[in-house]
Amino acid sequence: MSDKHKWQLAALVLGIGLLLWALGPVLTPFVIAALLAYLGDPMVDRLERLRLSRTGAVVIVFLLMTLALVGVVLLLIPLLERQVSTFIDQFPRYREWFTGTVLPWITERTGVEIEGFDLEYLYGMLRDHWKQAGGFAATVLGGISRSGMVIIGWLVNLALIPVVAFYLLRDWDVMVEKIRLLIPRRIEPVISRLSREADSVLGGFLRGQLSVMVALGAIYSIGLWMVGIDLALLIGMVAGLVSFIPYLGAIVGVGAGLIAAMVQHGDLTHVLLVGLVFAVGQTLESVVLTPFLVGDRIGMHPVAVIFAVMAGGQLFGFVGVLVALPVAAVVMVILRYLYQEYTASRLYAGEHPPPDGPSPPAGEPPPIRRKANPRGRRRRGRRAETDPGTDPGGSGA
Questions:
Q1: DSSP letter at 63?
Q2: pTM of the model
């Protein structure tokens, strides 16, 4: 590729990036629909292998995904909102436990007197902000009801998501094949291989690690609810969502669960039961969830996930958050490919010495190797043919 073509390609990529940035608000429903289609395509392919038509399989998967999303919106979000309100109402009990138990224990063990540590300001800030927000649903409805055009745009985007997702899911394999046929034949094998690797990386997180996070959140929440913890859903969901960072989910969940058990019940039995819940969850995650849902697929590093989401949100807003993980997966695969190409290049390995001896010292020209003269071989051949003592036929008869 010439320098001119490289600059043209860079300008094209930059232009596409600027266009996506300018069309960010318009692209939001299409990006959400594309992500839903990407997540649902493997299930549709499995149903097709059971001799269902593509349209029938899409209808089944689409209904299941719709029920799951409606359940999250109508059930999970109100429950979490209620849990946050419960935590704010019970915050004085946590404050009294901290100032009456934890601080004296620290002073007794270390001899350090902690003064000026008042949780009253934190409690007042939480209470005031939550009252001002009025809950998640009230905040959303208040935000979209300020203007009639905002309401119309919000409803149009909400209606576009299932329609676009349905058609993308139905024609997903056809679109992927058409895109593959548009790739120049010279680079098509490399692009196809990198695309499969990017799909493996992204699928390892979205279809694998994300499923593990949701499953762990459900296990922790149900277990803490059975133990009798009032904030079971809030603690379980937070512990499950941060579990993509190794051990962080268990540490956060155990810490919050133990504090809730000591404040709410104050006995050793509930403390041990909370520890048992997280021990069972970690065992199921190691033995069942990760081998079954993730397997040996190479996912994304937790630091890469955090940076990608934050960078995408900073650069492109909500659309950037949505496309951050797919873009990060592609970038990781490209960097891995460039690393392999670099380590296999002569720039990295250096010049190999000639096979018949070491390289000449620096500053000296390499020795001149004289090639054999084919004309000399022909002359010797002619002299052999005209020699009277030589039999041209080679038989002497």
A1: H
A2: 0.65
